[in-house]
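Dear colleagues,

For the upcoming journal club I promised to circulate an example of a predicted protein-ligand complex. I picked one with protoporphyrin IX containing FE because it came up in last month's discussion. The inputs are reproduced below in full, followed by the predicted structure.
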Amino acid sequence: MKLAIYQIMHVGSMIMLTTFLFMAFANPAPETRRRTLMWTGIFSLLMLIGGFGMLAVLKLGFPVWILIKLVCWLILSGLAGMAYRRPASMFTWKAIAWAALLIAVATVYLKSNFE
Ligand code: HEM
């Protein structure tokens, strides 16, 4: 039950963080900045709590693949701010977001190769 809560928290927050991030990419209007940064901050934190909760419940310790995911999480968490600060580079922010998401998800399924 505890594991399911952390899993839903982790994956659910990932979906919400991605949603708000791509909303910022589509329309980086200054009047939406505060609200978007608030929600991306909240979901990014919930996603991290879910991730560490799973690590604890599954008694996985701190494997190498978590470092890769932490880097992806850091990048993803900082991108909404970049979308508002430098909207001219939007294609770059989108490409980085796609890459971070893909690498983090791939890490879950390829993790046996990093242990
Ligand atoms: C961009 C960042 C991330 C994405 C897109 C992502 C995505 C995912 C997905 C799709 C799963 C599979 C869900 C499941 O099997 O229940 C998962 C599992 C997991 N994630 Fe993340 N995650 C990210 C960051 C993190 C971070 C920062 C942590 C650690 C603090 C973390 C820890 C975990 C753990 C422990 C699992 C369970 C692995 C297992 O079942 O053996 N993730 N993640």
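Two points we might discuss: Residues 7, 10-11, 14, 48, 51-52, 54-55, 58, 60, 66, 69-70, 72-73, 76, 100-101, 104-105, 108 surround protoporphyrin IX containing FE (CB under 6 Å). The chain has one domain: 2-113.

See you all on Thursday,
B. R.
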